[in-house]
Each structure stands twice: as C-alpha cells, then as structure tokens.
From TrEMBL:
NCBIfam families the UniProt entry points to: FeS_long_SufT
Start and end residues of each MIP18 family-like domain: 101-174
Superkingdom of the source species: Bacteria
Protein's name in the database: FeS assembly SUF system protein SufT
InterPro entries xref list: Fe-S_Maturation_MIP18 (IPR052339), FeS_assembly_SufT_put (IPR017776), FSCA_dom_sf (IPR034904), MIP18-like (IPR002744)
C-alpha cells in the first residue's frame, strides 16, 4: 500500500467498480500486474472480472476483489484489440518525434487514476536527442504522486515501452525524480476538474 499519508495526498477517484463496468473473461492465461502493489502475477484462462479502466491501450480489471493491469499487447486475452503500430513520416524531424513523444506520454495512465501522466503533472522533462546513426534517444524525467507508490516501476516500464514503439526511437531512458515533489497544483486544470480538486 502507499501508506495512509501518501494515499491521502493522491486524488480520490470515486467508484472503482460499478454496475456499468464491462464484464470480461480471460480467454488465455495472461501475465498481469497487481494494483497498487506492482507485483507481476498470472491470471488463468477462465478468470472472470470487470474492466474498471480502459485508457491508453491498457486495461485495469477487477477480479475476485483485486485490481490488475493488463498491458495493451495482451488485450487479446480479454477479447480486445491490441493498439495499432505507430507511424512516422519519412524525413520526420526531431520536433515531429517530440510531438509524438508527448502524444505517447498521454497514453500512459496510473492504473488507479483515470488521468494520463502528462495531465497529472508527473512528467517534468522530455528530451529527444538525435544520434549519428539516424536514430534517436529520448530522455524523460518524471515523478510519482507518492514516492512509495508500488506502481512506480510499472509506470516507468509503461512509459519506456510506449516511447520505444515510436519509429526511429532507439532507446527511452526514464528517470524517476522526487525533486520537486509532486503536488496537486501540478495537475492540468482539466485533471483537477475531473478529480474535483479545483
């Protein structure tokens, strides 16, 4: 768990599960991540649950009292389509790649909060560097809503893998930083509206 003080600072999102949540059945064994602990586990074929969040190409599902995150590449396990491959026009500039970097960052979500990491104010810096071989490296500095968040490694892996899907990106280096510490004022106005924090 995040610890009571840390958890209290996180945005409160009402109703993780509701009757409108979409029921799902796992069609095959699937590697998933337990939320918020961040442990990797396998849900067996035939597991039944509900989708509580379907954002950015990944899914948060409620199964037998626990929340699990299903990666986009495993969407077929719950009868969904995996995300389309990204395209970049020939001759794209570093600026074009940087726009795509920010677009991809907006597909990364904290599994417990239905707001992307950019609007949550978690991304402090995104830098695209051209390499001599024509490829690019991306450097990201980001933080978490709570330093002890068990989902930190999962979120970092999600950001890294989404950025490395961008054509011409050789490597994405994602560094977690806690200075300055995250606070609610870093959220976009839309994110504060959505969580009732205005």
């Amino acid at each position: 768990m995040h610890g009571l003080a840390a958890h209290a600072a996180r945005p409160h999102v009402p109703g993780m599960y509701s009757r409108s949540s979409e029921p799902v059945r796992f069609e095959r064994d699937c590697d998933v991540v337990l939320v918020p602990q961040g442990e990797q586990v396998t849900l067996p074929a035939g597991s039944i649950g509900y989708i509580t969040q379907a954002l950015g190409g990944s899914y948060t599902v409620f199964v037998e009292g626990n929340l699990f995150r299903v990666a986009g590449k495993d969407a077929d396990a719950i009868g969904k389509e995996p995300p389309e491959p990204l395209e970049l026009s020939a001759g794209a500039t570093d600026e074009d790649v940087e726009k795509l970097v920010w677009k991809q960052l907006r597909t990364c979500f904290d599994p417990e909060i239905p707001i992307n990491v950019v609007d949550l104010g978690l991304v402090y810096e995104a830098t695209v560097r051209a390499r001599e071989d024509g490829l690019r490296d991306v450097e990201i500095k980001m933080t978490l809503t709570a330093p002890a968040c068990g989902m930190g490694d999962i979120l970092v892996d999600d950001v890294r893998s989404k950025l490395e899907m961008i054509p011409t990106v050789h490597e994405a280096d994602v560094e977690l930083v806690f200075d300055p510490p995250w606070n609610r004022t870093m959220m976009s106005e839309a994110a504060r509206l959505e969580t009732g924090m205005l």
